[in-house]
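Students often ask why inverse folding is considered easier than folding. One informal answer: many sequences map to the same fold, so there is more than one right answer. In these notes we will look at a single instance of the problem. The structure comes first.
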């Protein structure tokens, strides 16, 4: 049997290998991280302390924002530290833990988006039954189900990945994700690639559910006679659809490709989009044109004057 050195830690290349750029990138991404956490935490805060936001729609949005805080925190702090410290390493178990939370939260987010689409479907297609269908129990079950699917998908893929033997320890990425780690494996990784496709299909399943909801929504909106009614219905779904497009568009570019076509320089850029930029944009997308959120902010501001 061929002997392989046991890897106890990995070297993380990060976003750049040019030392002159590291401090600049550190400051940029530190500001993005702080802003992202603050904005998403603000949405959670508004939901908790604003009675006018106590609806299923904002229940899901608050949970989604909490997921975003956890999601961006699973990768960005380590990425920031890589800009500053030498050697740029992460322990074997630290890498496994980062991958586990990254996959768990990403999968949970995808099904939270599907739950939010289902909520909008019921609000527009079944307005008279909306309160009965989207009761508290159903909302909690949908959130819990999102977390459960995330746990199962993440546990399976993380376990399979870290059962491999690794010949090399240099991760050409800024996080411990499956594609860059498969590049370091000594043995055949076809089982892992199949598991990756299955995991991607699980996430893609949430996309299918989301699209089914939106197909029904669009059909219902087109049947509305008045222009003002159609405009109002579309406005309640536009923000969510933009978030769905960003999330699935960037994620599919990363995971639905064979191992032979991986380009780590390209994948790092794509990964920045769905791990860092998307969590930053989502609070703006959901709140800038949202009158309920604006009213909640004004009420809380007046209470504190």
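Output (designed amino acids):
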């Amino acid at each position: 049997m061929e002997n392989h050195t046991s890897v106890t830690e990995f070297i993380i290349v990060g976003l750049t290998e040019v030392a002159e750029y590291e401090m600049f990138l550190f400051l940029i991404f530190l500001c993005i991280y702080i802003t992202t956490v603050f904005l998403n935490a603000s949405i959670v805060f508004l939901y908790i302390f604003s009675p006018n936001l106590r609806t299923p729609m904002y229940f899901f949005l608050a949970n989604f924002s909490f997921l975003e805080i956890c999601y961006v925190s699973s990768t960005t702090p380590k990425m920031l530290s890589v800009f500053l410290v030498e050697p740029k390493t992460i322990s074997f178990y630290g890498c496994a833990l980062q991958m586990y939370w990254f996959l768990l939260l990403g999968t949970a987010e995808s099904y939270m988006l599907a739950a939010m689409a289902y909520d909008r479907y019921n609000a527009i297609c079944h307005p008279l039954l909306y309160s009965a269908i989207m009761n508290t129990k159903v909302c909690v079950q949908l959130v819990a189900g999102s977390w459960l699917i995330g746990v199962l998908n993440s546990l399976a893929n993380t376990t399979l990945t870290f059962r491999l033997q690794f010949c090399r320890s240099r991760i050409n990425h800024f996080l411990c994700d499956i594609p860059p780690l498969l590049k370091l494996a000594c043995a055949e990784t076809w089982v892992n690639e199949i598991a990756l496709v299955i995991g991607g299909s699980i996430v893609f399943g949430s996309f299918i559910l989301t699209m089914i909801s939106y197909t029904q929504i669009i059909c219902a909106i087109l049947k509305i006679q008045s222009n003002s009614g159609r405009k109002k219905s579309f406005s309640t779904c536009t923000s969510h659809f933009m978030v769905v497009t960003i999330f699935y568009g960037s994620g599919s570019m990363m995971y639905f490709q064979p191992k032979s076509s991986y380009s780590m320089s390209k994948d790092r850029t794509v990964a920045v989009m769905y791990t860092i930029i998307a969590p930053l944009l989502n609070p703006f997308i959901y709140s800038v044109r949202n009158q309920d959120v604006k009213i909640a902010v004004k009420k809380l501001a007046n209470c504190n004057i």
